[in-house]
Amino acid sequence: MSRLARFAPAMPACGAGDPSRAASVAKMAIWAFHEDKDGVVPVAGSREMVEALKKAGGSPKYSEFPGVGHGSWGPAYDSKGLCEWLFAQKRGGLVPAGGCGWGRLTRAPAQGRESNRPMTPVDAAA
User: Fold this and answer.
1) Which of 43, 53, 68, 117 is the most exposed place for a label (fewest CB within 10 A)?
2) Residues of the chain where predicted confidence (pLDDT) is lower than 50
């Protein structure tokens, strides 16, 4: 299994990519975030990658924050509907158990078995 196959969604913030490789992730659920005043990573990188993903058959979401410098992760994680979108994506990783808070996550059922062991941010990062 490739590393990309381990993830359902991707949420790049202040990022850029190689548009020539967009087809390799075009079917992945992607919500990209950037700010128009980023002086560290030019916003053109996100704009170009989002367009390349669309041309490759993907349907990425893209949010650009006006007047914000390098640091879109703050407004990104506050985006309305982010948790709902994140947990609506399927790939066999984590599933919500009664909400979006870290303390309420459980592992996805493995081969039909439920796991009620609470997740921690450390577990979720593994």
Assistant:
1) 117
2) 1, 92-126
End-to-end CA distance of the chain: 16
Is the domain of 83 the same as that of 102?
Answer: no
Closest by CA to 10, choosing from 26, 27, 30, 24, is: 30
Both tokens assigned to 97: 């158990």
Query: Closest Cα partner for 24 from 46, 3, 41?
Result: 3
* Pairwise CA distance, residues 89 & 28, whole Å: 9
Same domain, residue pair 61 and 106: no
CA 78 to chain centroid, in Å, comes to 13
Q: What is the mean pLDDT of the chain?
A: 74
pLDDT of 71 reads 81
Q: Are residue 83 and residue 29 in the same domain, yes or no? A: yes
- How far apart CA 18 and CA 24 sit, in angstroms, is 11
Give 93's contacts (C-beta < 8 A, 6+ positions apart).
6, 7, 8, 108
27-52 pLDDT, tens digit per residue, is 889 999 999 999 999 999 999 999 99
Range of the domain at 114: 92-126
